[in-house]
Amino acid sequence: MIFSNIESARRYASLHSLFQQAFDYVRTTDLLALVPGRYPIIGEQLFVIIENAEGRAHEAARLECHRRYIDIQLVLAGGEEMGWKPLADCKQPVDPFNVGKDIQFFHDAPVSWIAVPPGHFCIFFPEDAHAPLVGSGSIRKAIFKVSAA
Questions:
Q1: Best label site of 21, 106, 122, 134, fewest CB within 10 Å?
Q2: What are the residues facing 121 on neighbouring strands?
Q3: Which residues have CB under 8 Å from 29's CB, separation 6+?
Q4: Tens digit of each residue's pLDDT (9 = 90 or more) over 18-71
Q5: Positive or negative torsion for Cα 39, 142, 92, 68
Q6: pLDDT digits over 8-23, tens only?
Q7: What is the DSSP string of 2-35?
């Protein structure tokens, strides 16, 4: 898991062959002007989901993980906290992994919480379980889905 601000994104571009394209998209696109939805960047290898959601309490957040995609979750407006726990330590799955939706949820509680203000992002790799959208009020974010393959 990585936590940083968008001004420092270039430091992480070399970690994956598609990270630079994701960060270029942030730099060249008015993400606040996009309506919520899914936007392809490089087919199924790299796309972004623009989301508006109401924040929820810590108790209502569920840890989730993905196998096929790495998440770059960039907060655009509002204040969000994101929970984290190593996937290897998650022992209480809600259901089996959903291959079609590339997601699995857990009853486990996060071991840490990260306050993520606008202009900051977290990168969650397949080994990171994460609990997004914790906060009060409206949260607008961009979730870049980067193929882990």
A1: 21
A2: 4, 74
A3: none
A4: 999 999 999 999 999 999 999 999 999 999 999 999 999 999 999 999 999 999
A5: positive
A6: 999 999 999 999 999 9
A7: EEEEGGGGGGGGGGSTTHHHHHHHHHHS-GGGSP
Q: How far apart are CA 15 and CA 101, in angstroms?
A: 25
3-state secondary structure at position 61: coil
Q: Given the structure tokens 């929820």, which residue do they identify?
A: 56
Which residues, in sequence order, are bridge partners of residue 106? 63, 93
Closest Cα to residue 119, out of 23, 12, 47?
23
Collapsing DSSP states into helix, strand and coil, what is residue 124? strand
SS3 of 58, please?
Answer: helix
Tokens of 80: 């969000």
pLDDT tier, 126 (very low <50, low <70, confident <90, very high otherwise): very high
Burial 97-111, CB ≥16 within 10 A → b, else e: eeeeebebbbebebe
**CATH 2.60.120.370, applies to 2-147:** yes
Residue type, 33: A
Q: Which residue has the tokens 């959903």?
A: 98
Report the predicted TM-score, pTM, of the whole model to 2 decimal places: 0.96
What pLDDT was estimated at residue 149? 85
Give me the residue spans of the domains in the chain: 2-147
